[in-house]
Amino acid sequence: MNRIKGFGILFLLIILHTACKKSPEGATQIYPDPLPPGTFAKGADVSWLTEMEASGKKFYTNEGVEQDLLKILSSKGINTVRLRVWVDPAGGWCNTADVLTKAKRAKAMNMRVLLDFHYSDSWADPGQQNKPAAWAGQNITALKTSVYNHTVAVLTELKNNKIIPEWVQVGNETNNGMLWEEGKASASMKNFAELVLSGYNAVKFVNPDSKVVVHISNGYDNALFRWMFDGLKNNGAKWDVIGMSLYPTAADWATKNTQCLANMTDMVSRYGSEIMICEIGMPAAEAAASKLFIADIIAKNKSLPNSKGLGVFYWEPQSYNSWSGYKLGAFDDTGKPTVAMDAFLP
């Protein structure tokens, strides 16, 4: 009987040791088990996190308990984080060291990582694709080398810390290419395709299993996506995943989601690509509509044939009190998640 009791106690200790991990602060917390590759990504871009914390921002559960943001997000079903990478940003936010800090925290929570290279010192999006200051005078040949070397350097730093991003974006919302003017797609799709290929080759050199994402906005605009990906394909670019952004309103989200599904289905059929919704958002003040929108786009992405839908990411949900002027978060002005985040729950 005593031997049986001893085995029972030993078994319980093993279970507790497996389930409980030490947080960076030393507190014992029970985290979810690591997710295998291929698990549907319920994600959040949290690139502002360290900057918000440094400014004194705190985050709270719906019950008003102060808690680490990643733990709050995990409790809402988020299993993956997206982190943007800037080359030499003012203040250091989103540079390699800052990205590594956030990636380590995500890994400690058994969250996966989508890395988002902007190839800029600041925001890159459909309205601006500015070269980093250090690359300002470079021609297309030099820019391809810079893209390759920067991508390898960042991924190697993460890999040296045992962090392998499951997905890597080569460019952010590159509706008209990147690294303007040389990489502007409307001026030279060939140049843009070669830049994408440089990024693709760099990713595969460091982490062959990481999937490369080419990301553009307006996921409902099939004509834009056909123009872009026909152009990239015809000019020798490679990618694994087509990434989309989608920012509808409370009034038109159902229509935009239906158009997005048609576009996603066409991208799967036309290129055989997997599809990820890399960014979504809606005003925090419209949380109820946002919850419906999120639940619907998750279902539509999951419905793609042959499990080609990989996941959906909310962009900076933790921004509140109009942090940096941004009003499309999913936390209220007291720092608590709105009902919109419940759409990610199982």
Topology of this protein?
Blueprint: H1 2-19, E1 20-22, E2 28-30, E3 41-45, H2 49-54, H3 69-75, E4 80-85, H4 96-108, E5 112-117, H5 140-160, E6 167-170, H6 189-206, E7 211-216, H7 222-234, E8 241-246, H8 253-271, E9 274-280, H9 287-302, E10 309-315
Helix pairs in contact: 5-6, 6-7, 7-8, 8-9
Task: Give a written overview of the molecule.
By secondary structure, the chain is an alpha/beta fold. The chain has helices at residues 2-19, 49-54, 69-75, 96-108, 140-160, 189-206, 222-234, 253-271, 287-302, and strands at residues 20-22, 28-30, 41-45, 80-85, 112-117, 167-170, 211-216, 241-246, 274-280, 309-315. The strands form two sheets. An eight-stranded parallel barrel has the order 3-4-5-6-7-8-9-10, surrounded by four helices. It has a two-stranded antiparallel sheet with strand order 1-2. The longest helix has 21 residues, at 140-160. Residues 1-31 have low confidence and may be disordered. Belongs to the glycosyl hydrolase 53 family. Its EC number is 3.2.1.89.
